[in-house]
Amino acid sequence: MSTAKERADHLDLVARLKSRFPEIPDAPAPDLLDHAHIAAYLKCDHDVGGEPDAPIKYENKQYEIWEEATYVICEVLAWRGIWISEERRRIGNVDLGRAMYLGLPYYGRWLLAVARNLVEKHHISLGELSERMAEVQDRYKDGLAGKKLEAKPKFEGDGTNVKRNKHHKHAVGKGDPGVFAGLADPAKFKVGDAVTVRELPALFYTRTPEYVRGATGTIATLAYESPAPEDETWDREDAKPEWFYVVQFDMTELWHGYTGASNDTLRTEIPERWLVAA
Asked: Which residues are catalytic?
């Protein structure tokens, strides 16, 4: 049981978490917003490339047990036809809100994606999940204290009526995106073509980073055929595969005031719908 002070301290901590512009109040009236602020609010949370950030030293570290277990759970869900990888990315990376996306550990977001997917697809209820979480908290309320982590209850149910996707069957032995080979229309571009990235509205989910939209580059490679992330992430089995290209950009074209070498380049993968001939 929590005390009144503990509850007050938690609410104070939550109140410090800000995910809005300081010059605009919460839930603003429409006339307080301009196009630039609306576009910023609607930006996909995971599309952070090019944004300023504090310096950080990247180091390899050993994964924790829960991180490895989370990865295995996600792979098993795909293997059993419960979701596809783009669903996990979209649910785990975008549907959390910017504060949670930037504030939680990487595999913490994956774990939330698992829970949300299983609830939304009616494999478990939110009430059942909450009760099981409380049960586990109680089981380890004093920490491990020498006990070994163990999944309980150990149970195998009847999965014959579980709704599954078809991808885990028709991709066997081919892999993704190999399973889509030959299904796209002829490629619109070839290696060496100059292309400009379209500035399409990016609502809910995209894998085309903001820092290349509107920039001009050159087709370096025809990569593969696959549904675009904007369609595949919603598990649209009728999504039409299209060509993906590796596009090369001059860094001086991408970044204002770039101070690196004049021949520095960057390559990124972009689906055909985002490209037009330059």
From this structure: 106
